[in-house]
Amino acid sequence: MKKRFIKIIVTVCLLFGWVSNACAASFTVSVGSQNLTKGGSTKLTIKGSDVTGRFNISSSNSGVVSVSEDRAWIENNSYTVTLTANGVGSATITVSPSGVSDSSGSAVSLSAKSIKINVALPREKSTDNNLKSLSVEGYTITPEFSKDVLDYKVTVPEGTTSVKINASANSGYAKVSGAGEQTISEGLNNLSVVVTSESGSKKTYNIEVDVIDPTPIIVPINNVNWTVVKLRDNFKCPELFQESEVVIAGTNIPACKNDKVNYVLVGLKDENGNVKSYIYNEKAKDNKNYSLYSYAYSNSLQIIILNLKELDNAEKTTLTIDDVKYDAYQYNNSSRYYVVYGKNIETGEEGFYLYDSKNKTFSAYDSDFIDDLLNNSNNNIYLLTTIVFGVGLFLSIICIILLNKKKSVKKDRPKKQKEDIIEKAPEEEKITDNSDEEEVASEENNIEEIKEEEEEDILGEKPKKKSKKRKK
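Request: output the structure for the sequence above.
Response:
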């Protein structure tokens, strides 16, 4: 009994050791894809576990699938080779261990493993670039959608700032751009939905979104129908005006107000969507509630040019400032200076202004001064002529004085130069000087003789020293 028990234990231990070794030494084979298209490729990975040795890699049909390497060395690691699809069909890739051992160095016997690879012709890329559906959420597009119709229209109410476009492609391989939430503004908005097929061809569907007011307030001015702007975002206040509101036809309308000039402005839009500021007077009659707000700006002055007041002996002309024409008086027939009548937006003061078209500046004057500028141009010319003549005469006198002084200096210069030369010359040169020096010496001798004669008369005798000098 005891011997039998011992035999069982030994048998179990040997069996357990064999199973442990068999389970410890192993390998796996995997591929990225078993289905390839001709010309494609995939990766085959061999991963060893507690095994070291060579593994042979082969293809049953290299014309269909070929391997980049026919052998790999594994040491408890992974090894990757490339499988290339060369033709249509199928091929079996086999990985066979050759002389492998476990981590203890004992030889192990491992069976080969195979994977089947199928190769087909590549699918042609889809050229379908049509839409399956198209709509603008909440609105109806015209005409009704058709994949062959490219242009559509939709109308949305004023104040709408965005629309949502729903679009889906007819092909699952195509891509759609331009769908979803799209920002729009007042007037016409052109939106596009582009479908790109798998092959790269594109088709564009156009949607024209028109933002309009279903109940517009129409204002006819000079045979042109203007529409009152109802949105603040579409009408901004000019400088020196504050945001306000007025009620027109029972609707709150954004306005701009300036208490200095007592003006209320509203925005009017023409048929092309251009917005201009108009002065609104709710008390006016005969459809004259609106008048164009026009102002000129220069050197910190903003002037509202008003209807020109009459001035005696002044002829009207046309002044153009920033492409806007105004009635004005032309100062002294000058193409540069003009006189207009207007109101200062900042102060509210009303009066005449002199406009310099060259420097684009305004200057304010009282009416008497403006009248003097306009009617006394001859006096101004006479005064200017007198000033010019006086300045010319003064300059002429100065020139004459300078010329006379220059001549005097030239006349005295030779004598002075000569005296300087005589004084600087050597003693020998002074003795042999010219006749002018001899004349000077002769005059000195005559003076000396006269003095001696006077002394003889006084003393009654001749000084000896002086007589000797005279003899000499």
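Residues 377-407 form one domain.
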